[in-house]
Design a protein that fits this description.
The complex is a heterodimer of chains A (318) and B (318). With 318 residues, chain A is α/β, with parallel strands linked by helices. Chain A is built from 10 helices and 12 strands. Chain A folds into 2 domains: 148 residues, Nitrogenase molybdenum iron protein domain (Rossmann fold); 125 residues, Nitrogenase molybdenum iron protein domain (Rossmann fold), CATH 3.40.50. In chain A, helix 9 links the parallel strand 9 and strand 10. In chain A, helix 2 packs across helix 5, helix 5 runs antiparallel to helix 6 and helix 6 runs parallel beside helix 10. Chain A is globular and about 60 Å long. Helices cover 71% and strands 3% of the residues of chain B. Chain B is mainly alpha-helical. Chain B has a single domain, classed as ABC transporter involved in vitamin B12 uptake, BtuC. Classes of the chains: A alpha/beta (318), B mainly alpha (318). Chains A and B meet through helix 1, helix 3 and helix 4 of A and helix 1, helix 2, helix 13 and helix 14 of B.
Chain lengths: 318, 318
């Protein structure tokens, strides 16, 4: 007992002593730059594309992490306190963290909701539309909405850091051009899939925007959040649909447990078309060949789109 | 091995989280919350454990799910008060069922507990699927609250005086009320916990004290589960009194020991989480486990090192 009391006091005194004898900043952050903390990997790509190297950008979620079920580590929480600006996706993508960051101004943290100024006409709603509509947060799959998000962010960052304004606007232009290029390329690629085969079966309902933008029917095992398990009814519906429409392949996602979908694929005798990126981008090492034969790494929005489109077209377009 | 253990950087672990006043306030809230939860659970837990109801915490924390869902369906909101009443009511109902099964049927207490809380939990899951599918109430948010988000929670002000985040203030009040209640009813609690025959002879309302204690337990669990997660709560009901019982055997001493132990769990857990960069609540439980291990080795009452010559008759809490 007393040993532990002594231990507790030792730690307390250590912290006090060390706080009195000089400081050494061990975080490898460049002190002169301001720090922007972003929640998801998609936002990290967007913010770094537009601000280039004017800020330290810290992403709370790492590649392959599912934002719906993300749990912060001790260092993530410290990063939040150190941030000069926190950018989050909103629309409940980050679950409870979204909810809390909405009210975080009160705690002296400057936050920016990346999707707050989107027009609701462009947003897809799920659930009980009249009583309790749930916006689908996976807006990055619609190139037009993602362009709007980038534009809105640029407006905000120009006010936040007026010195970098001209740079931001130039970067925005090249980013939107890139998005446009990928959009055109995607439309061309998707058109090679026979029209009766344009059905995308995935683990969770992340591709509604993708389907709307590029004319694919989207079927998912789970709802827009990965939190709720799929019921047996959902499963049976998906199985029936695959058999009925003779769908050649289903797709697993990098941030969702693939078990259920693998089983369904086995049961229906269809192949697993490959792994798509849904709620998180990939790592730098994953390369895909996109517009004009350039290769893109999956840790960027463009690379993610190119990878997904290639995977889908390779399996469905046979 | 070196992959498993991150580098132990003393300054980074003990000093960086406390280096600026802002960090101090932010992390202080997390540590204080950990302390409040472990101390209140630990004190209630000391009585729960001697009554051989250690897993009642587990039972109640799962049994409240249908109460939460029903409260949501009735009030159509996630406001605090209806949720709180629903949860406490379901917790108590769970308790009555366990008691009834134990007294009126041949089923033993442990089986009665397991039977009741799993049924309640399953009922809750079905209720969610049926009525509150998109309500963002789910088993996940119930079982894995996040202590790291405490500083982001809504803050409470009295006039102009800044009191702190709501869950923290609330938990502080719970801790104080529990302490006061234990002091007021100490004798009665002792007698009803240790000598049932004597308390019946003395004419004490045994049932009222039992359900009073259970109500306190339900109250403590409900007020902490949302912000720290159920695993921490269940652990803290059991760990402090069990660890202390290796050094002291009398109830007052055990109750006093929960205070320094809780402080150590909380501070130690925070540092541990910083070292391993993991979730803070789980780190606190790991620290509690390590403390238990040390106590089991070197404790003067039943510790294996000091008592290995003695015959194996364990002295119980008196």
């Amino acid at each position: 007992m007393f040993i532990k009391i002594i231990c507790a006091f030792c730690i307390l005194t250590f912290t006090l002593i060390s706080s009195s004898c000089g400081s050494k900043e061990s975080d490898v952050l460049n002190e002169e730059k301001s720090t922007i903390v972003v929640t998801t990997t998609q936002l990290k790509d967007l913010v770094s594309k537009i601000t280039k190297s004017r800020f330290n950008i810290v992403s709370l979620m790492k590649p392959g992490i599912d934002p719906h079920t993300y749990k912060p580590t001790s260092r993530d929480i410290l990063a939040l306190t150190k941030a000069d600006l926190v950018i989050y996706h909103g629309m409940m993508l980050e679950g409870r963290l979204s909810e809390l960051l909405e009210k975080a101004e009160q705690q002296g943290i400057q936050t920016y909701n990346a999707t707050s100024s989107l027009k609701s006409a462009r947003i897809i709603f799920h659930g009980d539309i009249k009583k309790n509509p749930q916006p689908d947060p996976h807006v990055w799959f619609d190139p037009e909405i993602w362009t709007t998000v980038a534009e809105n962010f640029t407006k905000m960052i120009c006010l936040f850091d007026p010195k970098g304004k001209s740079g931001y606007i130039n970067n925005l232009l090249s980013f939107t051009r890139e998005i446009e290029e990928v959009q055109k390329w995607t439309i061309k690629k998707i058109s090679t899939i026979p029209t009766n085969k344009r059905t995308l079966v995935t683990s969770h309902d992340a591709y509604s925007y993708f389907g709307r933008s590029f004319g694919l029917e989207v079927v998912a095992l789970q709802g827009i959040s990965t939190l709720l398990e799929s019921g047996l009814g959902d499963r049976a519906k998906v199985v029936d649909l695959i058999k009925e429409q003779n769908i050649p392949a289903v797709f697993i996602e990098s941030s969702v447990n693939p078990k259920a979908l693998n089983e369904i694929a086995k049961e229906c005798g269809v192949s697993v078309g490959g792994e798509l990126f849904s709620d998180a981008l990939g790592t730098e090492a994953t390369l895909s060949v996109g517009p004009e034969g350039n290769s893109y790494s999956a840790n960027t929005w463009t690379g993610m789109m190119v990878h997904n489109v290639n995977t889908i077209v390779n399996s469905l377009g046979k | 091995m070196s992959d498993f253990f991150p580098i132990f950087d003393f300054i980074d672990i003990f000093w960086t989280p406390w280096s600026t006043p802002q960090d101090y306030i932010w992390n202080g809230k997390i540590v204080l919350m950990g302390f409040f939860v472990s101390a209140s659970c630990g004190m209630i837990g000391s009585f729960i454990v001697v009554r051989r109801l250690a897993l009642m915490g587990d039972a109640i924390s799962h049994g409240i799910l249908p109460g939460l869902v029903l409260a949501f369906i009735v009030s159509q909101s996630k406001a605090l008060l209806p949720m709180f009443i629903g949860a406490c009511a379901a917790g108590m109902l769970c308790n009555f069922c366990i008691e009834w099964l134990n007294k009126k049927t041949p089923i033993k207490l442990d089986s009665a507990m397991g039977l009741t809380f799993t049924s309640f939990f399953a009922l809750g899951i079905i209720l969610i699927a049926q009525f509150a599918n998109n309500a963002h109430i789910d088993a996940e948010c119930l079982l894995y609250g996040e202590i790291g988000y405490i500083p982001l929670e809504k803050h409470i002000f009295i006039g102009d005086f800044h009191l702190g985040p709501r869950p923290l203030v609330f938990m502080g009040v719970v801790l104080i009320s529990i302490t006061v209640l234990i002091i007021l009813f100490y004798k009665q609690l002792m007698v009803t916990s240790f000598d049932l025959t004597l308390s019946v002879t003395l004419g004490l309302p045994v049932k009222i004290f039992h359900y009073g204690l259970m109500l306190c337990l339900a109250f403590t669990i409900v007020s902490s589960f949302e912000s720290v997660g159920v695993i921490l709560v269940i652990a803290m009901i059991i760990f402090p009194s069990i660890t202390a019982s290796f050094f002291v055997t009398r109830m007052p001493n055990i109750l006093f020991s929960t205070i320094p132990l809780s402080a150590f769990y909380s501070i130690g857990g925070f540092c541990f989480a910083r070292w391993f960069d993991c979730s803070i609540a789980s780190a606190m439980v790991v620290v509690a486990m390590l403390c238990f291990f040390v106590a089991w080795l070197v404790g003067k009452e039943n510790g294996i090192l000091l008592n290995f010559t003695k015959p194996k008759t364990f002295s119980k809490i008196k």
